[in-house]
Amino acid sequence: MLNWSKIDTVLLDMDGTLLDLHYDSHFWLNVIPEQHALARGISLDAAKADILKRYQAVSGQIQWYCLDYWEQQLSLPIMELKRESQHLIKMREDVPHFLTELKKAGKELILLTNAHPESVMLKFEHTAIDNYLDGVVSTHEYGVSKEQQSLWHQVQKDLGFNKQRTLFVDDSVPVLNAAREYGIEHLLAVANPDSQQPHNEIADYLSVTDYRKII
Ligand SMILES: [Mg+2]
């Protein structure tokens, strides 16, 4: 279990960690291939295959998370399309209680997300999750994603957190691996990032499916 007395700062991922990943999964795996098929006049299967290849080419890199990059790659109005399914944006139901309790306990709460700033603003607009936070960092400010060690060095320098007394929460194992390599002492994986998908098996990290059980 987590030893909360040894934690001052909590770095929190956004999509899949504080918010239901279903919106993003639906957007990138359904909406984008459908729009790509329409725009190019190709079958949905061909569009899906092409999109998947493009995703894999930049997986884990800042481009993967960059709306401008996809707008250029695909010639699609990404933000406009994102707004069309914005009704799916929602906070995980265990999050308000979790963040309120952490706040009461005096923890510093920082959002550390690979999401593009425009996507972050859209999510805030629909969830007001920023009301719980002491700080917000989009890795686009640094031009590198959480998967890269250089991001961690730069963010630590700017925020000044003590990595021995910091908890990092994320739903991505490659991202957790990078945080561990950098030396973040306390790590927590989210095993159920998407409300519409089965839970993930997390072998290497302490994991959670309901934050209310760990506070
Ligand atoms: Mg995530």
- As for the CATH topology of the largest domain, it is Rossmann fold
| Apparent shape | globular
How many discrete domains? 2
Backbone structural class:
alpha/beta
Q: For the terminal residues, how far apart are their CA atoms? A: 10 Å
Mean model confidence by pLDDT: 97
State the helical fraction: 40-55%
Which strand order does the major sheet show?
3-2-1-4-5-6
Order of helices and strands: EHHHHHEHEHEHEE
The major beta sheet can be summarized as: 6 strands, parallel
* CATH architecture title of the largest domain: 3-Layer(aba) Sandwich
List cofactors, ions and other ligands.
magnesium ion
- Strand content range: 5-15%
Rg, Å, rounded: 17 Å
Low-confidence stretches: none
The total count of strands amounts to 6
What does this entry look like structurally?
By secondary structure, the protein is an alpha/beta fold. It folds into two domains: 4-20 and 90-213, HAD superfamily/HAD-like (Rossmann fold, 3-Layer(aba) Sandwich); 23-87, no CATH class. Helix content is 42%, strand content 12%. The chain has eight helices and six strands. Helix 1 packs across helix 2 (44-57). The chain is globular and about 60 Å long. The model has no long low-confidence stretch (mean pLDDT 97).
List key phrases describing it.
single chain, 215 residues, alpha/beta, Rossmann fold, 2 domains, six-stranded parallel beta sheet, 8 helices, 12% strand, globular, binds magnesium ion
List the helices and strands and how they pair.
Layout: E1 9-12, H1 22-40, H2 44-57, H3 67-74, H4 78-84, H5 95-104, E2 108-113, H6 117-127, E3 135-138, H7 149-159, E4 166-170, H8 173-182, E5 186-190, E6 207-208
The structure holds magnesium ion.
The site of magnesium ion has 7 residues, from loops.
